[in-house]
Amino acid sequence: MNIATLKSLNSARAARRAAVVVTDLATGRTQTLLEGEPLPSEWEAAISGALRSGRPTLATLGERSLFINVHLPPPRIVVIGAVHISQVLGQFAPVAGFDLSIIDPRTAFATEERFRGTELIAEWPEDVLTARPLDRYTALTALTHDPKIDDHPLRAALEAGCFYVGALGSRKTHAARVERLRQAGVAAEDIGRIRAPIGLDIGAASPAEIAIAILAEIIAALRKRELGWGGEAP
Q: Where does the XdhC Rossmann domain lie (predicted)?
């Protein structure tokens, strides 16, 4: 890997942007594409597939054989609420390849004894997310049922374009949440991105089953997400 490519990748990593390195196997020439840049139209399908899977791939385009290597920011899950479901997510998410943080200002719930081995931040979400902003490679789950805790991070997640935004609660609870967000000026289209009721519909009943349903829905959203790349290159 040449110095210019390495610098581009390091810059993308620091900014939590995706990058793709395309190598022509016949000539050895490489081209680095950064998230937000236009894609050559003939490469779009192959690169899009690699970006969604997160895995390198070989592609044959006409008479050219290309090796496509993708460099994605580590996906992460930010959980709002130190509840029973969060305890299970804290165990399962790292197994599935996600970094996970739990934020809850309620110190009676946010205790090290309940969340050993999981990053736990006993502060208000608005304070945490100012210092550690959300991004397109973050999933946010709001699990407290408390508007004073959940609503701000939900708005922040929608503004940041998080690939997944989910909120716990019944349809009645979510209807009230929708009205609060609407009155706060959040567009209806953005509110419609919130997954509620949260998690895949697998008939989950226990906290462990609900956590599994949420994690499965997050994985599906990651693999099927809208890619943040520009239009076709001329």
A: 77-218
